[in-house]
């Protein structure tokens, strides 16, 4: 962790000490059990993929079959998107933006 500041505050000092304490516990455990830490290589999932999964879950939670997002007007969805972005709730704003894009694509495909 990289911390920036002109001086170390009490909260920073507590966080640093706690990190050192936990690191010591981990090192003792590794020595006791003859473990050598190794690097784990993983593919990083695209944040858009993560958000796509999250958006699908939000969509199924927010809308029942009777209350499909397709029944909402684009203006209503846009106003919800703007409302959440003004509240700085960017996850919900992004959800509505993606939903608008999805519905616009579906609309174009039908035409």
Explain how this protein is built.
The chain has a domain of 64 residues. With 111 residues, the chain is an all-alpha fold. The protein is elongated. Helix content is 66%, strand content 0%. The N and C termini lie far apart (53 Å).
What's the arrangement of secondary structure elements?
Elements: H1 10-32, H2 47-62, H3 74-86, H4 90-110
Pfam family, one: UvrB
GO molecular function, one term: ATP binding
GO biological process, one term: nucleotide-excision repair
Structure in a nutshell:
This protein has helices at residues 10-32, 47-62, 74-86, 90-110. By secondary structure, it is mainly alpha-helical. Helix 3 runs antiparallel to helix 4.
Based on the model shown, name its key terms.
4 helices; 111 residues; mainly alpha
């Amino acid at each position: 962790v990289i911390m920036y500041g002109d001086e170390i505050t009490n909260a920073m000092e507590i966080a640093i000490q706690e990190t050192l304490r936990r690191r010591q516990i981990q090192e003792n455990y590794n020595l006791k059990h003859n473990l050598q830490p190794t690097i784990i290589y993983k593919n990083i999932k695209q944040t858009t993929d993560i958000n796509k999964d999250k958006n699908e879950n939000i969509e199924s939670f927010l809308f029942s079959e009777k209350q499909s997002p397709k029944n909402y007007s684009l203006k209503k969805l846009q106003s919800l998107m703007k409302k959440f972005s003004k509240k700085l709730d960017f996850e919900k704003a992004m959800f509505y933006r993606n939903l608008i894009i999805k519905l616009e694509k579906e609309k174009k495909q039908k035409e």
